[in-house]
Amino acid sequence: VYDTHTYFYQSDFVDEIYALHDSFGKCGVAYDCIYLSDLSKCDLSRYKLIIFVNTYCLNDSQKTFIKSSLSDKTLVWMYAPGFCDEKQLNTNYITEMTGMQICTIENEVAYKVDKTGEAVDLKPDRFDPMFAVCDESAVAVAHYVKSQKCAAAHKGNSWYFTAPVIPRSVAEQIIDASGVHRYIYSEDVLFAGNGI
User: Fold this and answer.
1) What does the pLDDT look like over 131-178, one tens digit per residue?
2) Residue 153: helix, strand or coil by DSSP?
3) CB neighbours of 76 closer than 8 A, spacing ≥ 6?
4) pLDDT given for residue 165 in this prediction
5) Which run of H or of E encompasses 148?
6) What's the distance, CA 146 to chain centroid?
7) DSSP label at 115?
8) Which residues contact 129 (CB under 8 A, 6 or more apart)?
9) Do residues 152 and 161 touch, judged by C-beta distance below 8 A?
């Protein structure tokens, strides 16, 4: 799920959000790209996994819709979901959407995936403020290299990444946990849908 409205609340365009196409596009699953403004018009029964890529600004009605309509889905949240409510910025809004306690931290340059040791480079000047998962009941997926604070975690059906970058190995873990059908297990790009 992408949001075009978010760009009015950002100081800079973060092109890292498109890296998800590389990770998830090479996992053997079919996926759709949907705008946040169109989410309520979609047949959501078709989806087991929904990724909120750049939904940094969520108003009350959008939050209510997401909570009431998507509670049975696996949700992946990137960077600062709902950090802005159209009036103010508040880290508690991220906690509200992810279901995990979130805190701000000093700039970091990379995080490492716990399971594989794979490093993900970050551009700290592109992410300000930076966040960490400060929730002991969440299951850590990755940690920052410098501070060792949690950079990605999951809790229940909610996954949160403090930067909009997910390596393919973690994307596969999320896909498998959510029960999404994988057509192939190679890194080949898959296109699927009506008439293809």
Assistant:
1) 999 999 999 999 999 999 999 999 999 999 998 888 989 999 999 999
2) strand
3) 49, 50, 51, 52, 159, 160, 161, 166, 174
4) 85
5) none
6) 22
7) T
8) 104
9) yes
